[in-house]
Every structure is written in C-alpha cells, then in structure tokens.
Design a protein that fits this description.
Blueprint: H1 7-23, E1 27-32, H2 40-55, E2 59-64, H3 67-76, E3 83-84, E4 87-88, H4 92-116, E5 121-125, E6 132-136, E7 157-162, H5 164-172, E8 176-180, E9 182-185, E10 190-192, H6 195-206, E11 210-215, E12 230-231, H7 233-241, H8 249-261, E13 266-271, H9 277-283, E14 290-292
Parallel strand pairs: 1-2, 1-11, 2-8, 5-8, 6-9, 11-13, 12-14
Antiparallel strand pairs: 3-4, 6-7, 9-10, 13-14
Length: about 290
C-alpha cells in the first residue's frame, strides 16, 4: 500500500514552484563554510542541494572556506595562528598551508561530493586564470572605519578584480564552479582572502541575483540573541560599532552590504547547520536567517 503524501509536503512543493520559475537561469553565489562543512550529513545535504539547483536551471557558484581545517593543520605543524577582526594573520609559512588545505584537500572534497550527487562540479582557486586579483589588505577595525595605525596582516588580500568570464564560461558549459578563496597579486604573491569577502566580491562582479552566506548561527542576532529577519546598512553599522555583531560575523556583514550597494539582488545569511538550508531559504515563503537590504 502506497502512503499518501502529507499536506505539509504538498504545501512545500506548491510554495517552491513560483520561486523555481523566478530563479531559473539566474546566478547565485553561495559561500559554504561553518558546520555545514564539518558534519557528514550536512556535507551530503549541501552537495545534493547544489546538484538540484543546477538541475532545475539555476547557476550556483560555490565559494568555500576552511578555517577549522587550516587551523588543524597549522596546529599539527606547530605553527601559531593569530586573528584580527575575523581575518587570519598570514605569513609566508601560513600561506603555504592555506594553499595546501584550501586548494587541495577541501576544494577537491567538495567537488567530489557534488559530483556524486549528479552535478558537474569543477574546482578552482582564485589563481586559476587569474580569477581573483588582489592587493595587500589594509586593516579595518571593529567599528568599520579605516585606521591610521598600520597593522600588518601579512599575505591577506583585498580583491581588486574578478575575471568573471572564467566563471560564466564554466556555468554555460553546465559546470558548477567551486572556488577556493586564494587570490593572486600583481606582485606575484598568493593572498589569503576571507571566504565571505571573496563570495561577496564575486557576486558583485557577476551582478548575481542572490548571495547566500552559510554560517554557524541562525543569522544576524540582536542583543537578546533573537534572529533579525531584515536589516539595513545603518542598523548593521550600529550593531558592529556596539559589538553586537562581532568576530567572524563582521566580514560577512560588511561584504554583504558592499554587494547590495554594488547591485546584487539580495543577500541572505543563514544557518548552515540546518539540513537543506539552501532549499528552505530559496523555495519557501518564510525562508530562514537574515536578509540584508
């Protein structure tokens, strides 16, 4: 005997149809990181979601992090790590580990998993085809203002140019680009770029319809710990200055606001620890997480 579909399933499918029609043919940049990269069932959930998006005619571009994996390798090699405003201070020794872990281990694992679910993923670093060009980053303090004091973060980069043709050519050939945020400078050096910032810049240069940042929390939280469903630049700046938005959330929010100002349709910060978070955000009326406007 075949069980009848539940009303909940029917409701979700009905909700999804207009969103599928709206997003068909559109480009979405997804920053993949946090718990979604650490737990096996969430890795599989993410990979199957990305394969499905491509199958129904959406063009996802993945930009991944890998901070915990880098930290683990640095610890194993007895190399000390230091962070400033969510950015890892990166000397040449650390940079070599970053390239090895992000460009090799992490990137290839993501590509392999998406391909297992029927996608055609292809892995890149920002150095491939000069995809991500960068200059040495200048330090930004927690208030969001540039500081006169010079703080050397080493080989931490600010993206100056994205060679979008590399990504659009792959998307048009039915591939799913998976990008490790390692950029190349005019000086020939490799630069470590915060994955949230890299995803925001790629979305900006592509004029993407949507940027989605997967994180370890429900979204942007207010001082009482409640999720802020929608937030604008003025309020976000106030929360950064008052340290309600802090640490690793700072580059996420800054990058998201810059992307919005540059013409990206919308930016969502969502909880990657929820199974099928991408589908819930894209194809349900309520969505999840925080939207920046």
């Amino acid at each position: 005997m075949v069980a009848e579909p539940s009303p909940i399933v029917a409701k979700v499918l009905t909700e999804a149809l207009p969103y599928i029609q709206t997003f068909q043919g559109k480009t979405m940049v997804v920053k993949y990181g946090g718990n979604a990269m650490a737990e096996e069932h969430l890795k599989h959930s993410f990979a199957s979601d990305i394969a499905l998006l491509k199958l129904i005619g959406i063009n996802p571009i993945i930009v991944h992090g890998g901070g915990p994996q880098i930290s683990k390798m640095l610890s194993k090699l007895e190399i000390h790590s230091e962070f400033v405003d969510g950015n890892r201070v990166t000397d040449s020794e650390t940079m070599a580990v970053v390239e090895m872990v992000l460009g090799g281990q992490v990137n290839k694992e993501i590509v392999s998993l998406i391909n297992r679910y029927g996608g055609k993923a292809i892995g890149l670093t920002g150095k491939d085809g000069n995809l991500l060009m960068a200059k040495k980053a200048t330090f930004t303090n927690a208030s969001g203002k540039r500081t006169d004091k010079t703080i050397d973060l080493g080989q931490v980069g600010e993206i100056t140019q994205v060679q979008t043709r590399v990504l659009t050519s792959l998307a048009e050939s039915n591939f799913i680009p998976v990008v490790a945020p390692i950029a190349i400078g005019e000086d020939g050096l490799s630069y470590n770029v915060n994955a949230d910032t890299a995803a925001s810049k790629i979305a900006e240069f592509l004029n993407a319809s949507k940027l989605i940042l997967l994180t370890n929390v429900r979204g942007i939280l207010d001082s009482s710990g409640e999720t802020i469903k929608e937030i604008d630049k003025k309020e976000a700046s106030r929360l950064i200055a008052s340290k309600v938005i802090n640490e690793g959330m700072i580059p996420k929010v800054r990058g998201a606001l810059e992307a919005i100002e540059a013409g990206v349709g919308s930016v969502q910060i969502i909880d990657g620890s929820e199974q099928h978070a991408l589908l819930l955000e894209l194809f349900t009326d309520d969505g999840i997480g925080s939207q920046l406007t």
